[in-house]
Amino acid sequence: MNLLVTGAAGYIGASFSYEALKKGFRVYGCDNFINSDETNIKILENKFPNDFIFEKIDLSTELEKVKNFISNKQIECVIHFASLKSVEESEKIPNEYWRNNLDSTFNVLKAMEDEGLKALVFSSSASVYGQSKIQPLTEDTNLIPESTYGKTKLAIEFILKDLAEKSLINVASLRYFNPIGSHKDGLIVESISDNQSNIMPKIIRVALGVDKKFTVFGNDYETNDGTAERDYIHIEDLISGHLDAVKFILHSKGFIELNLGTGKKVSVLDLLKTFMAASRKEVPIEFSSRRAGDVPVCYADPTKSNKMISWKSKFGLKEMCEDSWRPFQNSDEFKGKS
Ligand SMILES: NC(=O)c1ccc[n+]([C@@H]2O[C@H](COP(=O)([O-])OP(=O)(O)OC[C@H]3O[C@@H](n4cnc5c(N)ncnc54)[C@H](O)[C@@H]3O)[C@@H](O)[C@H]2O)c1
Prior knowledge:
Keywords: Isomerase, NAD. Its EC number is 5.1.3.2. Belongs to the NAD(P)-dependent epimerase/dehydratase family. It catalyses: UDP-alpha-D-glucose = UDP-alpha-D-galactose. The chain is α/β, with parallel strands linked by helices. The protein has two domains: 2-181 and 232-260, Rossmann fold (3-Layer(aba) Sandwich); 199-230 and 264-301 and 314-334, UDP-galactose 4-epimerase, domain 1. Helices cover 38% and strands 18% of the residues. It has helices at 11-22, 39-47, 63-70, 87-92, 94-115, 148-165, 199-207, 235-249, 268-279, 303-308, 317-325, 331-334, and strands at residues 2-6, 26-31, 52-56, 75-80, 119-125, 170-176, 178-180, 214-217, 229-230, 232-234, 255-260, 266-267, 285-288, 297-298. The strands form four sheets. It has a seven-stranded parallel beta sheet, with helices on both faces. It has a three-stranded mixed beta sheet with strand order 12-9-14. It has a two-stranded parallel ribbon with strand order 7-10. α2 links the parallel β2 (26-31) and β3 (52-56). α1 crosses α8, α3 (63-70) packs parallel to α5 (94-115) and α5 (94-115) runs parallel beside α6 (148-165). The mean pLDDT is 95. The structure holds nicotinamide-adenine-dinucleotide (NAD). The site of nicotinamide-adenine-dinucleotide has 29 residues, from α1, α5, β5 and β7.
């Protein structure tokens, strides 16, 4: 079966492509490298020379290129990962987040329409929930995103839902909690370049001595230890959720939103403690004030995903930390890389 994967050079898009290729799918991948480079693409092209086909495309501006790329390729499902994804950055350049994330989605939808393609799996985010007092979060929780990033994800869900209600597309919108870790095969590794906004690359940079201190934003939240609590999920669990969602949406109609999280909340300090035990590295920290757009607590009720797509997470925090650190154990290889 043939798939279109947007954002294929990124952390999750490349991890998904790798697993899908291993399972025998043919993957048409595209990316414009705005938040990635060619590393993952080269790995996938070398390992799967016949079944991974890549083109550099800016989805937000190059509609004709997208159309040509997928024309007559018998693609059955689109997995739309491409997006700008930093909560912090979205507060600084909101216009660019709206433009990139929405325009990319419109162009993907237009190309799908021209090709008569209906099945879509969308990368949404737990940030659509915002600051809810009711935790864990079910998919029915009120949607009041705090950040511009979260608002772009919610706006896209709205558009997709409307089109699905009019029977134009069928969509599984996956609300990810906090994916961490690298693939166990060690081929696709989360980038630790200095523009990465996710927590684990920042922790690893300090463990390697690339950065001096890890900044904990906020230690005055109403949580057990005052730091923000999140639902971290192993990248491999997240990817298996996508494969289950692809299977599901190919035989379903309409729009479904699904949480991909473990259902367990972990504070920033707990994460650091587990990481330091797993890596046997010190990670010096400093506390700073809360970040705009951040919420105190955010963790999933994954019951709906368990039921609807028969998906369950398998890995615990210790394994997430071990698998995050493993590719960087030989620190010399990465020292100074940024
Ligand atoms: N990593 C997380 O913590 C997390 C959490 C929730 C949701 N998500 C969502 O998952 C998806 C993938 O996230 P990721 O962590 O792999 O991020 P990433 O930045 O590593 O990957 C996203 C990829 O999309 C590409 N891209 C962005 N705009 C593009 C455009 N206009 N045209 C072509 N390519 C474009 C980037 O270059 C990048 O390679 C994103 O939609 C993100 O919002 C991620």
